[in-house]
Amino acid sequence: MLQVTNKFYIEVGSFQHNKHGNIVCGDSVLMHKSIKENRTIAVLSDGLGSGVKANVLSTMTASMALNFRKRREPITRTAKTIMDTLPVDSIRNISYSTFTIVDVESDGNGKIVEYDNPELILVRDNKIIKLPAENLIIQSKLSSTNSDTRTIKLSNILLQKEDRLVFFSDGVTQSGIGNRNMPFGWGDGVNEFILETVKEKIDISARELSRKIVKQADLNDILRPKDDTSCVVFYVREPRRLLICTGPPFTETKDKYLAEIIRDYKGKKIVCGGTTSKIVSRELGLEIIIDLNDVIAGLPPSSKMEGIDLVTEGIITLGSLASILEEDFPKNLDQKGPHWDMYRMILDADIIDIVAGTKINIAHQDPSLPVELEIRRNVVKKLASLLEEKYMKTVKLKFI
Amino acid sequence: MLNIRICVGTYCYITGGSDLIKIKDRLPEEIKDKVVFVGSACLGCDDEKETSKPPYAKVGDVLITECTEDKLLNEIYSQLGIER
Asked: Do both A216 and A344 map to the same domain?
C-alpha cells in the first residue's frame, strides 16, 4: 500500500500582484488538474487595460481557453471563438486580450499556445532553451476588413524531469521601465534572474519561484507596480510526499498496522489526534513530549515525537486547517500555530496520503459540549476534496 | 519535583483543559519551584467515562476528574504537605 505510482509529477505554482491602487487584477490565471487523465492545464490571460474591465476580459478569455482545452478542441477554433466573443473596447475599438495555454499530458508531452504574452521560458539544466514554434494566423469572423488578423504561436515539447516552464504577463517584463538601470524595463533581465534563483536553490518549488519573480518585478517598480503582474511556473520533479494520519483504527487489531504505515513511510509525516499519537507512541515505543508553552491561536498545543514531523491534536486542529484551506489563498504564510504548520507542510507536498481511522469517539457526540465537534470522516473528506480541487494536490485517502 | 500532567486531548481541551494549562503561569510563589507542568496527549481515561467526566489532570499518580483550578491546587498542596 501507499506505493509511489506516479513517476512523473508536475507542480504548478502561480503568484499575482495588482497594478498599484487597483483592487482587482487584470490578469487571470486558471488551472486544472485532471486526476483521471493525469493531465495538467494552466492558462494565463492579460486583459486589455487594467482594473475591472481588464479582469472581465481576462477571466472570459482564460475560462474559455481552459474549457476548450479540456475538451481538446482545435486551437484555431478556440482562438477564433475567444476573438469573436470578447466585447469590443469602446476606446481602442478592438476586442483583445492575450493568453498563454500550457497543457501537459501524463507522459510529459506538452502543448503550448501563446498569443501576445511575453515568450514562455523553458529552463533545463540551468539554461534557457528556446522552443521551436510554429505560427498560426487567425482572422476574426466579425471583422469587416482583413486587417484584424492575429498570429498565434504553437509549440510542442517533451518535458523531462527537473524541467521548469515559466510564463508571465507583460507586467513582469515591463516592470522597472524608466529606471536608470533598466530604461526599457526588466526585459530579458528576468531570464537571468530565473537562472540565478534556480542556481541558488536547485529544488525551488514552482510556488516559491513564481512568487519570487513577481516580488522582484514589484521591487523593480519600487513597490508601486505600473501594471498587473502574474507569473505561472510548471516544475517537473520527483513527487514530494506527505502522510497525514488521524484517528484510531476501527478495530484495535489494526493499531499495529497503522504504526507500521507511519514507520515505513518515505516522506514527511503528520499525526493528528491525542489517541492516535498514543497508539503510535505505544506501538513504536516513542515518547510524546508536549510543549505547554506553545499555546497559540486557541488550539491545543502540538507535541514532539521522534521521527514524526508534526504531532497535533485531532479534530479541532483539522477543522481550523479546513477553514484556512477554504479561505482565499492566504498571502501571509508566516502565521503561528499547529494548523499553520500543517498548512505549510501541505503546500510543499505534491502527493498527500491521508490515513483516517474511523473509530468514533462517543464522548465527542455529547450535545452538551461547548464546541461542536465534527465527525472525523466528514472533516477528512472535506480536506481531501479541498486539497484536490483547490490546491491541485494528488490525494490518496484511506480509511482504516 | 511534583509532576503535573494536564490532558490536552480534544475532549479535555474543550471542556476546560485549555484553561488548566494556563495555571502554570500564575502559580503561587510557595509552590512555583516545586512542580513541573507537562502536557499529555491523552491520559487514557476513556475506559472510565461511564462514571467520570473531563477535563482530566494527574498530580503525581492521582487522577483528578472534572478538574478545576481549585481542585488541582488543592491536590498539589496536599501532596506537597503545605497548608493552603
From this structure: no
Tell me the chain B residues in contact with residue A298 when contact means C-beta distances shorter than 8 Å: 18
pTM, two decimal places: 0.70
Domain of A254? Answer: 241-399
Q: Which of A277, A278, A364 sits opposite B11 (nearest CB)?
A: A364
Q: Could you say which of A184, A206, A237 is where a domain stops? A: A237
Confidence of residue B50 (pLDDT cuts 50, 70, 90): low
pLDDT in tens, A122-158: 999 999 998 888 898 887 665 555 566 788 899 999 9
Does residue A257 share a domain with residue A233? no
Domain assignment of residue A1, yes or no: no
**Do A180 and A272 belong together in one domain?**
no
Please report residues of A whose CB lies closer than 8 A to that of B50: none
**What ipTM, to 2 d.p.?**
0.72
Tell whether A178 and A263 lie within a shared domain. Answer: no
- For chain A, which residues score pLDDT lower than 70? 1-7, 140-148, 294-297
Q: Which of A187, A209, A237 is the last residue of a domain?
A: A237
For residue A74, whether the previous peptide bond is cis, meaning omega lies within 30 degrees of 0, is no
Do A159 and A116 belong to one domain?
Answer: yes
Residue A291 contacts B where some CB pair is shorter than 8 Å:
yes
H or E segment at A44?
Answer: strand A39-47
B42 touches A: beta carbon within 8 Å: yes
Task: Report the chain A residue with the minimal C-alpha distance to residue B48.
Answer: A363
Instruction: Name the grid cell of A47.
Output: 486583459
Positive or negative: CA dihedral A29, A30, A34, A35: positive
The predicted pLDDT at position B45 comes to 67
**pLDDT at residue A3, as a whole number:** 43
Whether residue A51 is found in the same domain as residue A199: yes
Give the chain B residue nearest A315 (alpha carbons).
B10
Residue A273 forms contact with B (CB below 8 Å): yes
- Domain match, A171 and A308 both: no
Alpha helices for chain A (secondary structure H): 51-70, 75-85, 170-173, 189-200, 206-220, 255-264, 274-284, 315-326, 338-347, 376-389
Quote the pLDDT of residue A265.
93
Is B54's pLDDT higher than 70? yes
Contact A275 B7 (CB under 8 A): no
Write out chain A residues lying below 8 Å of B9, CB-based. 274-275, 300, 313-314
HSE-CB for A35 with a 13 A CA cutoff = 13
pLDDT of residue B49: 55
Question: What is the rounded average pLDDT of the residues B17-42?
Answer: 84
To test the contact with chain A by mutation, choose from B5, B6, B8 the residue with the greatest count of A C-beta atoms within 10 A, namely B8
Q: Does B32 touch chain A (CB under 8 A)?
A: no
Residue A343: other Cβ atoms inside 10 A: 17
